[in-house]
Amino acid sequence: MNELDLHYPPDSCPFCGIAKAYPEPGSRRPGLQNSSNKESTEARAESDLGSLEACVPRGEVQGERTSPSSFVVAASKHVVAFLDILPMVGGHLLVATREHRVKVADMKEEEGREMGFWLPILSRVVAKVTGVTDYNIVQNNGARAAQVVPHVHFHIIPRPGTMPEIKSKSWTMFGRGQRDELDDEEGAKLAGEMRRVLKEELERTKASPKL
């Protein structure tokens, strides 16, 4: 077991709490084993994720179902995307595995494929909503690499023309100490706009994951 898991098990992981509050959409249809190989592959991709529309939550979970409170933009079979509650800048989005994986090396093949599907789409969503077309995608593995929550997640961080002052220019800039908490009203509004744009983006591209 990874040393980080010893003091941060899945049952107390905040990202696992968010994932549980937003269950995976769809379910596997019966009878797939009787389909042809091509039909089975296509049907499996569709049933594993459900419809892409179902991957975009209709509203936010209220009350104590998530810890910390979350503003979710997408929730699919293997991936959950939500606003960072301690953002470096507005629109700072986290894209995490649904299951508790500590490092990228711990991810399963299907999780990697689905992560690769969502990252470009969500990057476009962040750019359109914030109006900022330059951004960082950051992913840390382990405490010495500035990983604060030991659960695989990618940061999509817009880089506007004027960045907030950061005291330290080292890798610790991706830790918790440099940032302000996300206002609940602002977070709900921003997540809602991202979900709206995500639906438009999915409709525009007519994309579907191939798992």
Automatic annotation (TrEMBL):
Residues 24-49 are annotated as: Disordered. Residues 59-171 form the HIT domain. PROSITE patterns: HIT_1, HIT_2. The active site is at residue 153. A motif (Histidine triad motif) lies at residues 151-155. Gene3D superfamilies: HIT-like. It holds the Pfam family HIT. It comes from the Eukaryota. GO terms for biological process: nucleotide metabolic process. GO terms for molecular function: catalytic activity. This is HIT-like protein. It comes from Massarina eburnea CBS 473.64.
